[in-house]
Amino acid sequence: MMTREEILAVYEAGPDAVVTLVQSLFTQFEAQVQALNERVRELEIRLAKDSHNSHKPPSSDEPTFRRGARKSLRKRSGKKPGGQPGHRGCTRLQVEAPDAVHLHVPDNCARCGDDLQGVESLLGQRRQVFDLPPLRLRVQEHQAHDRRCPGCGHTTRAAFPKGVDEPVQYGPGLLGLGLYLQHYQLLPYGRAAGLIGDLFGQTPSQGTLAHALEQAHERLEPVERQIHKGLRKSPSVHLDETGLRIASTRQWVHSAGTPTLTLYRAHPKRGREAIDAMGVLPGYKGVSIHDAYTSYLSYSGRHALCNAHLLRELVAVEEETQAAWAAPMRELLLEIKAAAAQARAANVAELEPAQIQAFRARYDVLLRQGEAAHPASPPTGRAGRRKQSPAYNLVLRLHKRADQVLAFMYDIAIPFDNNLAERDLRMLKTQQKISGGFRSRSGADVFCRIRSYISTVRKQRLPLLDALRSVFSGAPMVPCCDS
Questions:
Q1: Number of folded domains in the chain?
Q2: Is 73 within the bounds of a domain?
Q3: Which of 151, 291, 315, 417 has the smallest number of CB atoms closer than 10 Å to its CB?
Q4: Looking at the predicted structure, is the pLDDT value of residue 72 above 60?
């Protein structure tokens, strides 16, 4: 800021000096106003981001978020609400051989009051109540008997069965239930132990549950290796990652999955070092489906980008810039998706070449419109990379990665989006909200391996409690890991 003496000196220098000073001040003022306007615009765009126009999850939406006020990416199906024709019902049916039968016979006539005892009764109606039996732990005692050899006099004691190692211990059923409560229902140690105590009258210690987790982690290592091999052989794999608090620091959990397999790995890094350590993508021959994260794209092989992310980004461009090309591009992607789904339903191997050519031509026309509407930012004169608008960056990605964006069109077996990977990671975020993170890296590793097994079992519709019980029976149930 100029002092009074400096201002007076300019005044005394004459009109030209005053004009020069005012012009320089006005130029500085314009530059500051422009910078502030750009900053305000950037903050307004950031505040307008939510789950419908960005990568942010629905859980991050503000409480005042009203879905009716936003444009939904879903289209009305035209079907009536409720179950559709051909939908398999799930009504509970009566069983032919109930566990107990209670007879209810009238003693008096409901009309005249006469005594009906001694009159033969006929079945009029049946009703069945499905309920839990009284719950209690079943205690099995194992006795090892001694026998003395009549020849040499040596006494031999029978061996206990495998897994019966302590004078008093919990069996595979209860330990499997503890694993289910902690790693599927995400209950903390105390609440899991308390629930078991409320149900069965015996409360295991938190140390018992912690030891069971360590056992499960060790015994599931061969199963994890099988899952890893299955992912490497699969024709396509979904990839994603999410940040978690591990040992009071921000680290990452990476996931690789298919419709039948899931693998989680924790790592301090997000990028290529962590992906290499996971061991799925290096040298992978199938199609890698992801959200265009640079580290994934650095690997050779075929790639397919998540179009659900692109649809949300197109919504954001339409809302922020009112660009005329964004909505038609979104509609085109959804139209191609519907065509691919229709072809799969008809057991057709691929779309017609003419249809593919027509779709691609429309894509290129809309892309040129986007390039004209969102040119690159002019040079600033500063060193380094120029900051570009989100709209420009989106158009550039649609241009450079067109074959990867439209991979689901060229090969209809490739999924349209990467939602499978996002669903796989959802429980990791739920666990973080419940506990705040993991106290140690070893705890994160235990969770990732057990959760990989649980997710794989659930995807293959195997009985989960039976699978978790088998972990403590000495022979874990191994899901199918073939591609």
A1: 2
A2: no
A3: 151
A4: no
